[in-house]
TrEMBL record, chains A, B:
It is an enzyme of class 3 (hydrolase). It holds the Pfam family Peptidase_S51. This is dipeptidase E. Its EC number is 3.4.13.21. It comes from Aestuariibaculum marinum.
Length: 235, 235
């Protein structure tokens, strides 16, 4: 049975790394003593070791040990035997590329579908969707595919941002970009604002946090979903 | 001899399409009666016809005819025989994908290197760099490669935006994204603010417009280039 948290961000403004969601993580990971951390997305280009230390410090507060996947000789086996998995944020292209290079797409899908608890934040949440085609990140590497883990039947847009009506900048708004996405892709997109997350338990996918989420369905006007809404019918 | 304008944007705030740069375009295109427009980037998902009409209206003001490349049976021949080329903005991934599918990368390179004047705005400027790996756009389609036209020896980041020091949003700033780019790519990046453009004449590449540009070189602190600076040494 799937047991997943898909969080828009690791950190909300004015709060420490994972601090806002630590109580939820105690529940998600209640049967795990040790969590396998996948640091491939390397935010700001930091090393796998430095990133893993950040995760380690945060999870020490709820008495969970962290092991970085790069510390294992065989990453597929590390995933297969993991008690729990956490994929951190950073660059979605770098993350996806490394998952393919290390043959981890199927390994993670299999583990999560058989019940290994999974936490994703930001890029680690993007890859829970059908594809990474709604990432906000810069395409700094060329992955072998944009297909992602497909742990939910739609796409995710983390760090969702409402249009700034005072802006004089002419770059596209997030809403325009997602509208363009639907010119070429059929699946719904969930725009998750910072501080929101999806709680997946088996076939249930519920929006959590205090905010609404923006839902984009092809051919429909975008709309808001209230928190505690069940989103498993979205596909 | 190369004769190119690489503009950050087609439109600056409070002004019509191409209006701010029309005098420059009269000079760039002074020997052309007709301009081949490449509407593949489809901003907001509009049709090739509708987008071509927008370009047609703007260029009528300086008495230039516009033909959309989609009106030709053979796009490669259309490029080869064009008096001038304009590649409009929109989604860089969609644009790049269509250029590859229509076998236009080499055709455009050959035409521009033999002197066909070229205007790019936004996505049409992104593709003038070595790769599209510094685009701001959403990867809504998967192109066969991120390699671009390489008309200049560096990468372009159009619509360059300075960090908003008042923001409470935790998504990466543009500067952070380009720093991450340099973790995986060696080439310099020119961050072109809206209202700026690069004027390429043969081997010369000069920054034009009233603003400075932000230059990112791997391993160096980013710095500002003044307008009228020669950037051909950047590689």
């Amino acid at each position: 049975m799937k047991n997943i948290i898909i969080a828009s961000t690791s950190t909300i403004h004015g709060s420490g790394y994972l601090e806002y969601i630590l109580d939820e993580l105690s529940i998600l990971f209640n049967e795990a003593n040790s969590i396998l951390f996948i640091p491939y997305a390397r935010p700001g280009g930091i090393s796998h070791d430095a990133y893993t230390d950040t995760a380690r410090t945060a999870f020490a507060k709820i008495n969970k040990a962290i092991k970085g996947i790069h510390e294992f000789e065989n990453p597929v086996e590390a995933v297969t035997h993991a008690e729990a998995i956490f994929v951190g944020g950073g660059n979605t292209f770098v993350l996806t590329d490394q998952l393919y290079r290390n043959h981890l797409i199927e390994a993670i899908q299999t583990a999560v579908k058989s019940g290994t608890p999974y936490l994703g934040t930001s890029a680690g949440s993007n890859i829970c969707g059908l594809t990474i085609r709604t990432t906000n990140d810069m395409p700094i590497v060329y992955p072998p595919s944009f297909n992602a883990l497909a742990l939910v039947p739609f796409n995710i847009n983390p760090h969702y941002l409402d249009p700034d009506t005072n802006s004089k900048h002419m770059g596209e708004t997030r809403e325009t970009r997602i509208k363009e996405f639907h010119g070429f892709n059929p699946q719904p997109v969930v725009g998750l604002r910072e501080g929101s997350w999806l709680r997946v338990s088996g076939d249930s996918i519920v929006l959590k946090g205090k905010l609404t989420a923006r839902i984009f369905e092809k051919g429909k006007t975008p709309y808001e979903a209230e928190h505690d809404t069940e989103l498993n019918t979205l596909n």
